[in-house]
Amino acid sequence: xxxxxxxxxxxxxxxxLGTKKTAENRKNLEVLLKDIAFFKNLTNEQKxxxxxxxxxxxxxxxxxxxxxxxxxxYFYVIEDGSFQIFVSRPGKFxxxxxxxxxxxxxxxxxxxxxxxxxxxxxxxxxxxxxxxGRDSFLEAIGPGSDHLKxxxxxxxxxxxxxxxxxxxxxxxxxxGLSRVNGS
Length: 183
Hints:
Blueprint: H1 4-14, H2 23-34, H3 44-53, E1 55-59, E2 64-66, E3 74-87, E4 95-100, E5 105-106, H4 108-113, E6 120-133, H5 134-141, H6 144-155, E7 158-160, E8 163-165, H7 168-175
Antiparallel strand pairs: 1-6, 2-6, 3-4, 3-5, 3-6, 7-8
């Protein structure tokens, strides 16, 4: 089980350094990032900064990567494995709303809006994530984040109080973000 404090301490010490990457790691990460909408229009310098600052996180089946309601500190890209997204509502059992795999990105809404995590994410099948700290994520996407925030606000499928929701397929369609399913 990943302990949040330990993960946070590790991430903080590496957020500007990233981790050493083999040539294969770097190539795989470049492939994963090229289809993520947030990074499509970055300059070469910004892309290089993202590649340098991301760090690899091996995850075991059963690990909770993100806790609903927690402060969002990281953006994640799935290199390998299967991850289930659960949403909890008061007085109800958590509901499985989606399963993500290779090439999927997660954690961006909490970072963009500075709001608590909207769902919990549990590793279903051992995997590997690439993580990028909040500050590095926001530094990289810069002014482009306003466009994505507006896109989300105008096209959200459901609003419950102040909280808005959009189906993953609609979000992917609107942003041009493609999901690559690993086997």
